[in-house]
Amino acid sequence: MGNVNTYTKDLAKEKYSQERITHWDKIAYDMDSKRGFSKSYHKRIEDIYKFLIPPGLRVLEIGCGQGDLLAAVKPAVGIGADFSKEMVRRAKKCYPGFQFVNTDAQEIGNLLKETFDIIILSDLVNDLWDVRNVLKELKKISTQRTRLIFNFFSNLWEYPLRAVRRLGLAPPLKPQNWLTVEDMKNFCCLADMEVISCWDEILLPLHIPVLSNLANCYLVKIWPWKFGALTHFLIARPLPQQHQICRKPMVSVIIPARNEADNINDILSRVPGMGSGTELIFVEGNSTDDTYTVIEQAIKEHPVKNCKLLKQKGVGKGDAVKLGFAEASGEVFIILDADITVPPEYLPDFVEVLTSNKAEFVNGVRLVYPMETNAMYFINLVGNKFFSLAFSWLLRQSIKDTLCGTKALWKSDYELIAANRSYFGDFDPFGDFDLLFGAAKLNLKIVDLPIRYRERTYGTTNISRWKHGLLLLKMVIFAARRIKFV
Q1: Most distant CA pair in the chain: distance in Å?
Q2: Which CATH number covers residue 319?
Q3: What burial class does residue 378 get, using C-beta atoms within 10 Å of its C-beta: 0-12 exposed, 13-18 middle, 19+ buried?
Q4: Are residues 406 and 443 in the same domain?
Q5: Rounded-to-integer distance, Cα 304 and Cα 294, Å
Q6: Which of 285, 294, 327, 340 could connect to 261 by a Cys-Cys bridge, CB 3.0–4.6 Å?
């Protein structure tokens, strides 16, 4: 009986695939004369993917059609796969600079022998016979750094889209799966993949001047209009395998220090050794006390420590952090504020979370555990909690504390953030948002690491409550404009 069921299932799958190949071949033949309603929709989809994917990566698109979306993201290496021979023929003609292959998504892992930075599945999962199997195939050609980006129609639009297609305003479709976001999250879980973020896009799939931009860039991101979105977006990455969790990298600890003379010896004695070696990079920031001299002397008194001392020429912690990163030689970068309100003994935890691939960007959080009595003023605490909610919503990942000075990331990821910094510009005097926004823009997995925040034992804070509170509000508006409402 088991063999009969398997044979029947295979016949059903073959019939299902053949019907869809025939269907999409026909649509390909008609594409020059019938585009209609879907033209504005596809243009908006292309704009979203261009925002999500930096140029110059290795990109694979499954269900590539005639290759328009693949070409739009400007990959260094672009491969498109489609089971429609006619679609592949059109793609090769339209975009001879890319490679296009005629294959079923269910067999892609056996056909391709290379890995990719980005794998796109645009409007595909609702048409697949076996979603889980396709994800397992894609994992064969993925690394821990690969990002899979999906978009798929909301099931609330099933009947409106049927009406549109019956009117001939969009290409017809075969019966669909009509998956929900929770369905896709479950499929990712079953295929050993982790969802990084998900959100909704496109409220008005027609081009109506002013109104389309208002609906698709703004209203669709806000309650209650977001519930009427046409398409769901979801970004996932493969979960790490056990053999990937054994790295011992060189660690560079960047320590911006301004008016922190009495903390320097404490830092040198308390920062533990990590990974294959630990490098301490002090960036002294035009102190009014003798911080620079104290650091020089402390380094001489600790000759076994691997230390560098840099003199900051610019202004602000953000500038100091950039200078420290530029001179760092480790594979892992960690920022440690010289006030040591975040105890240095926590630093190995940041490295462990990063090297175990639980995260690609580790963000220290001061707002989970109770604080010491004078560690933070009540009004600062309220403000930080408000901004944590705001930035979590804006960046589509949990960011419970934006201004905890301790953060960790791979050097290679920092270099990508720096290479794409022109998108945001030089906007951040703190340094925290330059990194957080850059990590979110690159779809890095951001994980909050709770720490117990301590009272300052020397000097006074360099943070001005009201001045920097207004700057934080400015950061919210900036993130809204450059990340959320685009």
Answers
A1: 84
A2: 3.90.550.10
A3: exposed
A4: yes
A5: 17
A6: 294
Same domain flag for 368 and 234: no
Do 218 and 317 lie in one domain? The reply is no
Percentage of the chain lying above the pLDDT 70 cut: 91
State pLDDT tens for residues 452-482. 988 766 555 555 556 667 877 888 899 999 9
Domain count, the chain: 2
- Tokens at 363, concatenated: 């963000």
Give whole-number Cα distances, 367 to 163, 224, 373, 453, in Å.
50, 30, 13, 8
Whether the upstream peptide bond of residue 172 has omega within 30° of 0, thus cis, is: no
Same structural domain for residues 77 and 138?
yes
List, in order, residues 6 or more apart from 273 with CB less than 8 Å away.
none
Final residue in a domain of this structure, among 239, 266, 295: 239
pTM above 0.85, yes or no: yes
- Residue whose C-alpha is closest to residue 446's, from 382, 359, 374: 359
Q: What is the mean pLDDT of residues 31-54?
A: 86
Laid out side by side, the sheet with 407-410 consists of 306-311, 277-284, 250-257, 332-335, 407-410, 361-365, 446-450
Place of tokens 């129609």: 153
Is residue 215 domain-shared with residue 249, that is, in the same domain? no
- Give the separation between CA 276 and CA 247, rounded to whole angstroms: 9
Q: What is the rounded CA–CA span in Å between residue 152 and residue 233?
A: 7
Domain that holds residue 224: 2-239
Residue 342: the pLDDT is: 93
The answer to whether residues 263 and 212 belong to one domain is no
CA dist., res. 178 & res. 175, Å (int): 9
Average pLDDT over the chain, rounded to an integer? 90
Residue 85 sits in the same domain as residue 133: yes
Give the pLDDT confidence of 393-451 residue by residue, as tens digits: 999 999 988 888 899 999 999 999 999 998 998 888 788 899 999 999 999 999 999 99
pLDDT tens per residue across span 285-301: 989 999 999 999 999 99
Q: 327: which 2 tokens? A: 């001179």
Picking from 239, 265, 285, the residue at the C-terminal end of a domain is 239
CATH of the domain at 115: 3.40.50.150
Same domain as 143, residue 96: yes
